[in-house]
Amino acid sequence: MRKALFLSLAFAMPSLLPLSGPALAADPSIPVLVPITGFLAVEGKSQRNGAVLALTQAPGGLKVRHDVSDTGTSPEVAVNAFERAIDDRNTVAVVAPMLGTQMLALLPVALQAKMPMLTMSGTAAITQQGNPYVFRFFPDDHVTKTAQVRFAVEERKIAKPALIYQTTAYGQSGREEILKLLKARNITPVYQDALDVSQKDMTAVLAKAQAAGADSLLVHLHGGPTALLLKAASTMGLKLPIIAGSGLSQPSTLALLEPAELATSCAETGSSPISAETPEMQKFVADYRKAFDQDPDAFALGQYDGTMMALQALAGGANTPDKMTKALASTTYKGLAMTYKSNGKGDMAHSAVVICFDGKSRVPTIAKHYDVN
Amino acid sequence: MTMPATPTLSPSAVPVRQRPSPAMLVNGIIVVLLGLYLVWSGMAAGNYTLRVLSIAGIYALLAIGYQFIFGHAGALALSQGTFMGVGAYASGILAVNYGVPFDLALPISVGLPVLLALIVAAPVLRLETHYFALATLIISQVVLLIAIEWISFTGGANGIGGVPPIRIFSVTIPPGWPLLATVWGFVALGALLAWQIARGRLGQAWACVRTAPSAAAAIGLDASRLRLTAFLLSAAYAGFAGSLYVHALRVISPDVLSFPIIVSCLTIVVVGSRLRPVGALLGALLIILLPEWFRDLRDYYLLAYGCILLLVVVIAPAGLLGTLELLAGQLLPASPSPAPSPRPLEPLAVRGAAVKTSEAAAAPVLDVSRLCCSFGGVRAVDDVSLRVMAGEALGLIGPNGSGKTTLVNLVSGFYVPDSGRIALCGENITGRSSYRIARAGVARTFQTVALVEDMTALDNVSIARDVNRIGLGAALRVGLRDPVQTRAREEAAFLLEQMGAADAMMRPAGSLPYGVRRRVEIARALAVQPTLMLLDEPAAGLNETEQSDLAQRLRALLKQGTALLVIEHNMSFLAPLVDRMACLDAGRLIAEGTPQHVKSDARVLEAYLGTASELVPA
Which CATH number among 3.40.710.10, 3.40.50.2300, 3.40.50.300, 3.30.870.10 corresponds to the domain A142-275+353-371? Predict the structure, then answer.
């Protein structure tokens, strides 16, 4: 009983103590708030790795603190993490989570705190609310889905696609864009289905798409479900062309698939670092592999570029959130993946690529490059 | 009602000086400490701390509501997060799409979850244990799917941003200490209200339904209505919490309907306290703040959080508050509460349809006609007919498994007969629910004594008085002292005194010896003021003196006109007590008559001992 008393007090009393935020220090800080648990853990870790790699390679000998916080998948946790991060008066910008619902929750807080956020979220709505503190370094749904639909229609000549998307914000936002783009080309999907992230058996949805007479699959799923869908399609012997979302471009997704299972597949993405087209990109891939013992994806590269742009601005004297906001909003930055420049709403990335697989290797080739205004 | 005098501990012998109980002391200290901490935080802490404390307050409100259904009613509902989400969506959509501020939207954001709870209650509240949990989980999933798929209205998986801050009487509450003060102000009000609701007879009724459901039904407590009350209260609190949440977070998304919300809520209640609002405050602060303390552990913070929670649950299964209360109870022995002065029960006004007419008055109190009940292929009661008149005692005997207890369960409404008729004072009560039969004047005891262990013997009896006046309205109306409860306790004290258990009245029922527990149970049955009492092996476990004492008290009851149906194996107890006996064997009535006649009936002897030819004369 004495032990119980001690433990009860030990657990109860800390709740009466103040929460401690990050210790104050003279060095500027760019905290990294990303989902490293939950259904976006794979993408979130890529985002984290990209940011951390850039922060450890800060230009001009800059020393920048970068506490990493897990935002999970809840808006509430993201806002808590954000408030904690900006309690540090040396914070000049925040690497914000890629989950759309979390970003929507962070917008009013960032607006009030006047704190710039660097994010990889593809959710269109986050840059449509007139918030001057959001900077998106991943092409939004309009850009990536334009690449996906244009490639499908113009290169693969599809006419009767089946559209399979996720029930998450990412899925719904992408679906809306795809339908808009298809409609502009007088195409209506012969079949549509929304999948929960926990769904594992994809054979039923594929069979329904086939039965509906689909001539192709437009897929807009997260990485794991994309891999499951491709595996099921391969097992069923489905020969339809598959044009997937950026989930398929992630090395972690590709690692789940045999090259043969990728044979009929292409995917849109912001960039394809593992295709390593330039010496700079090859160096980035080598550094990334050395630091994290894995291959980088488009999220890692995009966040690397975005963070590096902020670091360049910091090196150039943008050492307050206000100066950083102005620098990000007005500067053009040539990154590894593309050239970034705000369109006035915080959208920095305006290019996307479509990658395709040959069925013999997991390393894709870039089939088409799209610049979208 | 007059009964044999029994030496009892006079109420005046009990010390009357009362000081706060150790549990009250612990609760008070925690409230003061929390209050000081919040005031200090409001003045000194940064936005981050203020924000996390505000969110913790909202979860505390959610958990206080959850205590009604999970703690008090004892039902594992997994819908609390859904009710919170519905409240959040209602308030958020009204604010964003129609410009309705927080305060004006409140009736809808609280009312809508209550309405949803009311709609789902009918099919769901009938279910027991894990089926109930599963049903509420399914409802949660359905609501979540609606929120995700109804994109035009809910914003789909993205949700809706731009929810304005809380606005009350045209005053906007900004983030920081104003939000903290507002949220915790509501928490304080919610906690006070919850305390007021549960501190009296309604709380005791819930305890009875939760821990001794059969006993609750046997004294006329309507378990379904009580659970419904708890369910609706939970939904109302959740709706309020949801409304605060959405205006504090400034965005609505399906996340508020997701499973982690109910997991957090459940954890808060289990770790803090299942019953006490102060425990919910403590639990909410711990559960919401703990992950924040561990943020610096980065990839391992969830592991640390999980380990700590597991440790708390293992070391303090009664919750942090419960453990602190237990320890305080050991360190600071409570002064016993003064026992109430006994007050004799007033004669009942005409009860229901019973004794409404002279014809009915002349009818048998119990008239069972051709009753049958089967369980699968087993015929437990087979074409049984019997009668008990007012002031008459009928003994029911038979070997184990002969259907005696099943017959009592049928008469008291615990089982529904396959065929046959049961009449009470001429009124057909066949198939009625057990609590309605109890309210009609049928009281019973159980083969295994069924009392609420944590409640005093006095309250175990007093709760059976005036059960139809127990409800939310009554709970809200009472002031510091509840006159109905005071009177019920005085009457219970009288009954316990009559049953020779006055010494034990202020002790928890779980701490009483078996014989005293039996008497408390009979006193509780008497508190119903029954016209018919069904006693299932009342002498079991009593010594000879206690048996004789009990028989004497039952005879006094008979003189009052109460009819008794007594199941008993102990012939030396039963035979002198009853006027007639009936014997069941394999569900059939094989003999009926005077005790002497039945005891010597060849079929009875055969049923008990084998064939008559094998018997050796005594």
Answer: 3.40.50.2300
